[in-house]
Amino acid sequence: MSDVVDVEDTEDLECALEDDRTARRRVAIHDIAPGADWNEVEEAILTRRSIRKFKGRQPPAHLIRRILEMGRFAPSQGNCQPWSFVVVRDREMIAEMEQYCVAVCQNMTAGIDYTNYESGSEQRAAILQNTQVLNRQNPNSFHPVPMTAIKSIAKGRFAVFHKAPTVILILVDKRGVGVPEVDVGVVGTNIVLAAQSLGLGTCWVGFSRLLSSNTALCEKLGVAAPFEIAEAICVGYSIGNPAQQPVSRQTHEIIWWEGGQKEVLY
Amino acid sequence: MTASNVEKAVVPPDHLAIWDDPREALYGRVTIDLETCDGCKLCTVVCPANILELYGPKDNLKVRIKEDFTGCMSCNNCYAICAGQAVIASEPYDFAGYYEQKRIGKFEFPRKF
Questions:
Q1: Which domain holds residue A151?
Q2: Total number of domains constituting chain A
Q3: Reported ipTM
Q4: Are A162 and A234 in contact (CB under 8 A)?
Q5: 3-class DSSP state for residue A152?
């Protein structure tokens, strides 16, 4: 491998040819000491919370454009950029979307909520069987956590779009390279972190996918094939300031290979 | 009943968690420090699972977990918004009947390396 040059070698080379242009091309290696303070990006990542209570005040349009612009510069597979956005800032439109999602959740609880009946009862046994079949067809959607959410939405205890003043629907182009859904997730992360750094609160809403079964509403919103609703992000000003301190989170296993040795870290 | 003193049920992989059996469905645990809690109500507002409520006389309100407690997913929103750090989600949720949690460690605050 003769064409591979060591980092030290290139540095020597650049030093030899040092002039204004090469100096600009060089990337400085920052020496960051162990245990250094968080920088601004890390700070935004650590203090970001999912905001579910919003003030009524509408965030200005230029801020929404600004965070969407950050989404546009996300990495994607083959640089195919398989996304598109629908920004909904009409109260009536959000209310209509909300209403439809609530109706779907109410239908779902009637048919599959195995938590409504006592353990050992006949209804419970029948419904549990139903849910097991659905669960095999559509894994992950009937985990106890979304199940609780579906139940709360049906009862009106929990709003799908959290009464947010702005809802951004992220659409995925199904023709994208590789796994377009992953690219859409990266876009959303950019949007959410940019919003956090600008003082806006955000929340991901996976239940927005329920909207795709309503063709009339999709047409009205401007969602058509090959685009599909992947996720929604609610944006607004949060009530209270949950970004004042980072919280504790679970640690996950890290398998660490170095120097021919395998280690397990947490 | 806390996570540590409940013996986990052995269940087949396709079985869904039975809601009211603590061996199969364990929700997150919330620890509340009643001395620092000043009853400001913010945590009850932000809790996405809506499991916290205020109780007590008007001049000495405290927060507590609702009796029909379901669905704490240890998101720690309550801790994040609490100025006095009186509320904290201390244990994760775990649904033995749905799937077994694997490769998971303890709760940790952001660590500097």
A1: 90-161
A2: 1
A3: 0.78
A4: yes
A5: helix
